[in-house]
Amino acid sequence: MRTSFLEYAYSVIYARALPDARDGLKPVQRRILFQMDRMGLRPDRPHVKSSRVVGDVMGRLHPHGDTAIYEALVRLAQPFTMRLPLIDGHGNFGSLDDGPAAPRYTEARLAASALALTADLDEDTVDFAPNYDYTLTEPEVLPAAFPNLLVNGAAGIAVGMATNMPPHNLVEVVAAARHLLTHPEASLEDLMAFVPGPDLPAGGMIVGLDGIREAYRTGRGKFLTRATAHVESVSPRRKGIVVTELPYMVGPEKIITRIKEAVGSKKLQGITDVADLTDRRHGTRLVISVKNGYNPEAVLAQLYKHTPLEDSFGINNVSLVDGQPHTLGLRELLDVFVRHRLTVVTRRTRFRLGKRRERAHLVDGLLIAILDIDEVIAVIRSSDDAATARTRLMQVFDLTEPQAGYILELQLRRLTKFSVIELEKERDELAREIEALEAILADDVLLRRVVSRELADVAEQFGTPRRTVLLEASGEPVTSSAGSAATPDDASTASGGGEKRTGASAQPMTLMPSASPVPLTVPDDPCRVVLSATGLVARIPGAEPVARTGRRQPHDALTSQVSTTARGRIGAVTDTGRLVLLDVVSTTEVPRTEGAPGAGRRDSGSPAGGHRAGGEGGGSGSGGIGRQPADRPGHGGWCHQAGQARRRASERRELGGHLPVRGRPGGLRGHRGGHGLPDNGDL
User: Fold this and answer.
1) What are the contacts of 601-607 at 24+ separation with CB within 8 A?
2) Beta strand 87-90 pairing with 310-316
3) d(CA 417, CA 45)
4) For this structure, is 105 an active site residue?
5) How big is the chain by its Cα radius of gyration, in Å?
6) pLDDT digits (tens, 9 = 90+) for 581-613
7) Distance from C-alpha of 149 to C-alpha of 154, rounded to nearest angstrom
8) Counting C-beta atoms within 10 Å of the first and last residue's C-beta, which end of the chain has fewer, N or C?
9) In sequence order, what DSSP letters do the residues of 456-490 get, joined into one string?
10) d(Cα 48, Cα 662) in Å, to the nearest integer?
11) Predicted pLDDT at 474
């Protein structure tokens, strides 16, 4: 029993669960990519059934169940799991909440990025080993033109050990690898200037980088992932929290279930509804409606605390190095990859040098034969057989056996004058290539420069901007040096990914651990509700009257104001004598200014520098007075103009005699004074 268990544990650790630190692949993943490459399933070829790929891999290389092979293939094709997918899937390959379709329904082929892993396999770059029945051979490791283990991460459970590695940004990792190539003695801090943290496929935020630094130093650590959310108006009189990016490997259905459970157990308050509006066109969109009177910021803090909108990720960088499991930090992982690429390029260079020397040798013999072609023909014609002809050619013209054999196979069309010129050009070109290849093998600096240039090409071809925002525990954004730093030998190569996403590019309404606590409900403090000349309503904190003198923009002159409290209700008398009740808390709050609202400002076209409801974006609703478009029936903001009485009566009938204040996300909700609210100050 003891022997059997040890054999099983050994097999799981070395042949199934742990990735190789050089190419970042488990054996089943490596076999899938290798077999698909041998099947010719490249990006320019049609997709084939996944069942065919699974069958070929199982029959030729991987003597295990088809389910395990298909699950590995599916993972390589999922963009929410892999930062750089290696398989181009066609069909239902699953989601964070649902599994994939059966392999008979899906199709697959290699992605362009996978070709960078399998390139140069036929140039003696890696060692091959027999397959399970010793009828075929398979590579022990792929050449891997980029650090796949860091870029795509890994997850696996073996016997007594496990691995869990987050994905990273290709451009940043390549920049760090190139820096290590140029500066072999670079410290961990130098490399972390290029790789500040993971870059998750779904985006989101990472809060607190101490655990990441610990993982980069020791191979073990932990960090918090947080969803990206902002506050906007989800209905004319209600705000909501809109989640656009989720933590790594967390699906919308899981979050919705946890929210409903927390609301039912009274752990969450102020939530009226949650809806998943995710689609392929707009991406993730989880809308959480907030009750009037509750601060969306405080509700968001509760969601981070009680739901998977904030989740933890434990880093455990266990991988195989020279066949042994090791826990590696960032520098060790990059060093293993760099040494692997140096070995691959060295072996490839030797292979190409040997091939070109062989070809140059044959071309030299062919030129000798063509210069005295008549005598060559006479020697061949006078020989009894091919073996005798080969021997006599070697004796008469001082040729080697490969040269003599190549001459015997020569086609008559190669005896033209033009062919001689072509052969001379080929000889000169081969001489230059041989010299260049010999220089690479003789100079370690030149070899490293070649590896660095190839890495830069991969980053330029497949690199994308950072998706995940990195935030210190204090809330300060963190950026990498990958976009600005380049090695001296490649000053003309771009970083391949463009700009890096910082805290400024994140959604506006996010909470940091150091943020001051926000009350859950809106306090019933005194405020002033104001009406502008354009019919827009807002509330301003404080009981003091708002100044009505000073420089103003044409559209924000105040026609009336009333003193109330934030959780009170006010009435507005329309020009037809109806009373419209308005909850003060449903109006947008604008900050109080020292002078008149909007005094001396000409930015954004709205008072107090706020957003217009008719514009794009939205934001948190804390800006200025929003404007309603006058040409959208049934959406508020109607102008009091001649000829609109018919539409006004129709809308009143539809609303049952009540005329609510309506608006669009992004600013204050209001009506133009001629119809919705009075112009004469009767508020």
Assistant:
1) 601/553, 602/553, 605/553, 606/555, 606/556, 606/667, 607/532, 607/553, 607/555, 607/556
2) unpaired
3) 41
4) yes
5) 35
6) 888 887 878 888 765 555 444 443 333 333 333
7) 7
8) N
9) HHHHHHH-----SEEE-TTS-EE--STTT---GGG
10) 53
11) 56
